[in-house]
Amino acid sequence: xxxxxxxxxxxxxxxxxxxxxxxxxxxxxxxxxxxxxxxxxxxxxxxxxxxxxxxxxxxxxxxxxxxxxxxxxxxxxxxxxxxxxxxxxxxxxxxxxxxxxxxxxxxxxxxxxxxxxxxxxxxxxxxxxxxxxxxxxxxxxxxxxxxxxxxxxxxxxxxxxxxxxxxxxxxxxxxxxxxxxxxxxxxxxxxxxxx
Length: 195
What we know:
Elements: H1 6-21, H2 27-42, E1 54-64, E2 69-74, E3 81-82, E4 84-87, H3 95-107, E5 113-114, E6 116-117, E7 120-121, E8 125-131, E9 141-151, E10 166-171, H4 181-194
Parallel strand pairs: 1-9
Antiparallel strand pairs: 1-2, 1-4, 2-3, 2-10, 5-9, 6-7, 8-9
Helix pairs in contact: 1-2
């Protein structure tokens, strides 16, 4: 991947535009937004797995608002229940489509849509966390995750992918024990934004 790649440049420009437009409600999220923008200013290839020690990722909490439930995946590397998501790819035209692609691939639900504000898919929150996405024997690196809300049709049936140990719907008030605070916060935001 080189910075001259048109798709990579367009994705980078979209990430900058998306994060510049987005206005979080709290100071912690605002600081993360500014940190992400600094990362993108310093790293023309900062959206791809090859950018170390940190790179932007995209994810989405898949929710069925009618049933007040969220779909979570038991991640094989992390051993926790997480929202759908992962690395941006050169073919992704923007951050929102990267998050939607990951959500569809990992949920098996083809007709998801991202929650939008003024007709434009908008992040729900940002989360910075350490992972070993380059292998167990490699140093940790940082995911700068841009998190969206993906709306599933009422009664949607999920289909587990090879990227998951398990895939289940959980009531908003019945999240599993092996869920971290970041996921709980994302689900709470999804609940507020879709009710």
